[in-house]
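TA notes, week 10

Several of you asked for a full example with nothing omitted. So below is the full record: structure tokens for the whole chain, then the designed sequence directly under it. When grading your own attempts, check the secondary structure regions first.
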């Protein structure tokens, strides 16, 4: 009888061994998609740690759970990579070098792609446009070259695009400014050219194009914009497109070639506390609170800054900007006496910086026996008056001459009265 049961015994042992082997094999399989693991391997092959960086030290491809052990990798419930952060972003880490692998497009569940500052070169892979779940692309402070891939215009869920501080060239793809979910677009400090897309239908909150070679006029922008910088470009034309931006809190269009008057609506926006219009070709006069809105007494407040310097602004200084904490009106064609509201604002500490040098101003009604607070910087040099004694808080660029030659004042005053 024992002999009859022996085959069954060996069969049972075989089945137990097979089950245990299967369980062991399952336990040894990495807890990550095989496709994603292969993509991460290709990504690692195209990048390297700059000496002093140890980002890839945890990327052990024999590890049982790369989703938990790989630095910068976050997976979803299905063991697919959803967030990839390349580099640490720590101040003591020099970052990565190399290039971005097209294999990034195989991470099809990716929602966030972040590249921290380093020395990564080469183009942005256009295959990233295949990652339809992407919400954040941040590839900042590297040495990426080539154009912004037009394929990004297909990323309907993209919320944030930050490609700042690289060496990107070409124009901004027109489809990019039409993306329905895009709220933040930062392309500053590149070498982008061409004009801005005429249609900007994306409900942007933050648009930063500073320090490029973008030309042409400002297009009409969505009223949702709160932060706008196009400074240090080659843009020109009037600023009419800014009139509808009622939500602006920060505006910088400085160092371009914009011309025409300053839209008065900018000064009726109480949330706009940072206004930089310097070094353009703007003309016309300063806003007048009486002409604009009788309920508005002043513009500005604590922390406010307005820079209208180095333009062609003419006429008298109106009291409307007397509440601004930091105010630059220097290097214009302003005339007349400085209103008493500014004098009071300076001496009670509301205005901490007031630069009026290099205009054609004729007076500053300084109160008798008053002393300028130590916290205040006031510059009145090179106007059609002798600056009050004791006021010399001027930058070096103001020059050493306290007043304009009388011949300049006579010619300009005569010309202004004739016009």
């Amino acid at each position: 009888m024992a002999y009859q049961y022996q085959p069954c015994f060996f069969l049972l042992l075989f089945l137990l061994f097979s089950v245990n082997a299967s369980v062991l094999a399952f336990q040894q399989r990495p807890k990550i998609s095989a496709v994603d693991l292969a993509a991460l391997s290709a990504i690692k092959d195209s990048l390297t740690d700059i000496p002093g960086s140890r980002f890839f030290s945890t990327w052990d491809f024999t590890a049982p759970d790369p989703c938990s052990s790989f630095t910068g990798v976050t997976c979803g419930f299905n063991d697919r990579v959803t967030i990839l952060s390349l580099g640490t972003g720590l101040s003591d880490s020099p970052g990565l070098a190399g290039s971005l692998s097209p294999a990034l497009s195989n991470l099809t569940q990716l929602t966030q792609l972040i590249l921290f500052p380093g020395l990564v070169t080469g183009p942005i892979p256009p295959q990233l446009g295949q990652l339809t779940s992407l919400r954040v692309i941040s590839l900042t402070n590297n040495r990426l070259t080539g154009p912004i891939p037009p394929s990004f215009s297909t990323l309907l869920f993209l919320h944030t695009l930050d490609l700042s501080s690289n060496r990107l060239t070409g124009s901004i793809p027109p489809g990019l400014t039409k993306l329905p979910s895009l709220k933040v677009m930062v392309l500053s400090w590149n070498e982008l050219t061409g004009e801005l897309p005429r249609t900007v239908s994306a409900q942007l909150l933050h648009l930063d194009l500073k320090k490029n070679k973008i030309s042409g006029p400002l297009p009409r922008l969505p009223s949702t914009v709160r932060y706008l910088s196009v400074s240090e470009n080659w843009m020109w034309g009037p600023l009419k497109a800014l009139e509808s931006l009622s939500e602006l809190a920060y505006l910088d269009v400085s160092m371009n070639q914009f011309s025409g008057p300053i839209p008065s609506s900018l000064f009726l926006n109480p949330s706009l506390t940072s206004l930089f219009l310097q070094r353009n070709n703007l003309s016309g006069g300063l806003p007048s609170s009486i002409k604009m809105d009788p309920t508005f007494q002043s513009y500005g407040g604590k922390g406010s800054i307005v820079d209208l310097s180095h333009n062609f602004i003419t006429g008298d200084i109106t009291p409307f900007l007397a509440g601004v904490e930091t105010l630059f009106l220097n290097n214009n064609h302003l005339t007349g006496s400085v209103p008493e509201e500014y004098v009071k604002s300076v001496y009670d500490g509301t205005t901490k910086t007031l630069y009026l040098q290099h205009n054609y101003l004729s007076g500053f009604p300084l109160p008798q026996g008053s002393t300028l607070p130590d916290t205040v910087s006031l510059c009145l040099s090179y106007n059609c008056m002798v600056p009050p004694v004791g006021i010399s808080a001027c930058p070096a660029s103001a020059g050493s001459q306290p007043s304009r030659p009388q011949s300049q004042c006579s010619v300009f005053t005569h010309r202004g009265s004739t016009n």
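The chain is about 15% helix and 25% strand. Use that as a sanity check on your answer.
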